[in-house]
Amino acid sequence: MTIQEFPKARKLRLKISAIDLDNVPTMSSHKKVLQVDSGRYYSTIGTEFYIRNEFHTLFIEGREIPTIINFLFWNINPAFSFRDLRRSYYNGSYAILFLAENLDEITFAKILYYFLESVNSISHKTPYYILVRSSIKFYSDLLSNIFGNRLNIIVSPRFNLELFTKDFAKKIPYIVDKSKVGPAPIKHIEKMPRIINVLLRRKKINQTCLMFLLLTLFNICKYKEVGKQAADVAISYLKKYINEISHEDFHVIANALSMQDDNVILNFLEKYPKTRRFLVLNTAVRILRKDSKEIHKILAAAYLVDTNPSYLENFLLYSNSEKTKNIVAWILLQKNSDIAFNYLLESVNTINDIDLLDDIVVDLVKFYGDSRLPEIIQLVRYNPKLTKYFAKGLSYLNPSKWYSVVKNSFEENNFIEILYYVSKAIGRQKFLNLVKRLGDKKILKLFEALSK
Predict the structure, then answer these.
(1) Listing from the earlier edge strand, what are the strands of the sheet with 95-103?
(2) 194 vs 47, 146, 179, 220, CA distance in Å?
């Protein structure tokens, strides 16, 4: 910034986004407050701001410029339900100010989380401040390692906001100078997975700290430079602590996980299919809703059928993807879903994928052969190409329940063809023993002749 660019009135109006880290709730809350001066409290809804006018001397091009600075402290609600709204409030901020009682493991984890949330909405030169009453050196050193000079730690037992404004005033000429460029955020982000991994190795860790560290790792996943490393760390420690995380915190983590790339989600689903069911549900639903590879949809539906079959049944009614609906309906058959059965009876003749058609017809017979065999027989009579798959499904059923029904429903040649495929599915000798028990001498004689 040059003398010519500096305002003639020697006045500056600067927006500061402030977040009270001690009042970060797990779920939405409108009652949390931000203390910006001793004894004074303000709403953190995000629509209120605290104005502070101060006189400072700025040093520009070697000259001292007396200036009145109008600080506008925007109080940002830290609730998770406001995370999308907060991004718009970060825009135009000349500094991000965190406030907390102590700089401990919880505060450290929250700073990482809110840094990632805000960093893409502000200039690379915008500094971060943390104003605390006390500080643990271990965590202040970790922050210095990650952020360098971009994060400034101010310890004030009396919570004096003036210490922030004095230090910040020294940086104003650099911040508003458009000719200077600050370091890219990835410089700080690349260090986070390694340091978080060290913290999570400890035997005991605060649950709130754990939640914010996991959320931070999931937010790092979108950066290709360190995304895979962050995902691996997050998944491994999610497994380690999965039974210790509260239901409320896990709901937040589930939402973060559901927004990840398919590969990250599948990594979790493949390793931990029997963990918290609503987390699996949340991630599986997301895969089903987007245009993922079919194997992803099969995997997602397979997990989802154990958590919420009713959702999959609704999916059949409202989805526009016929192929995905066929996959979902096929998986639902194992839960004896009448909706899936009826859907497949109507759609099976339109399926061109031979492998999928094989699996669907076999499972139709396998799971519904005892109760709805006549309907399946009608389907096979209408479409003879299903005969082979129909016979394979019959091999799973008790012959005494289907033999006479199938024999009376098909012409002799078609019936013999079905029995031929059944014999191939269960083995020649086993099939001959089966027919012998049923007492069908004609068929027994025929297949004994064929076997010779």
Answers:
(1) 49-60, 63-75, 11-20, 95-103, 128-135, 151-155
(2) 37, 10, 34, 12
Cα angle, residue 48 at apex, residues 18 and 75 outer, rounded to 5°:
10
State the pTM of this model. Answer: 0.66
pLDDT (tens digit, 9 = 90+) per residue, 120-168?
888 888 889 998 888 999 999 999 999 888 889 999 887 778 888 888 8
Nearest to 210 by CA among 169, 243, 173: 243
Using the structure block, give the residue that is written with the tokens 């014999």. 423
In the CATH hierarchy, which fold is given to the domain comprising 11-185?
Rossmann fold (3.40.50)
> What angle (nearest 5°) sits at the alpha carbon of residue 9, between those of residues 7 and 10?
65
Which amino acid appears at position 150 of this protein? Answer: R
Residue 72 to residue 75: CA distance in whole angstroms: 9
Q: Give the DSSP letter string of 118-166.
A: HGGGS-TT--EEEEEEEE-HHHHHHHHHHHGGGEEEEE-TT--THHHHH
Domain ranges within the chain, ordered by starting residue: 11-185, 190-257, 261-352, 359-452
Question: What are the structure tokens assigned to 154, written together?
Answer: 């101010």
Q: Of 90, 177, 158, 86, which is closest to residue 128 (Cα–Cα)?
A: 90
Measured CA to CA, the distance from residue 268 to residue 263 in angstroms comes to: 9
* DSSP, residue by residue, 370-437: TTSHHHHHHHHHH-GGGHHHHHHHHTTS-HHHHHHHHHHHS-HHHHHHHHHHHHHHH-HHHHHHHHHH
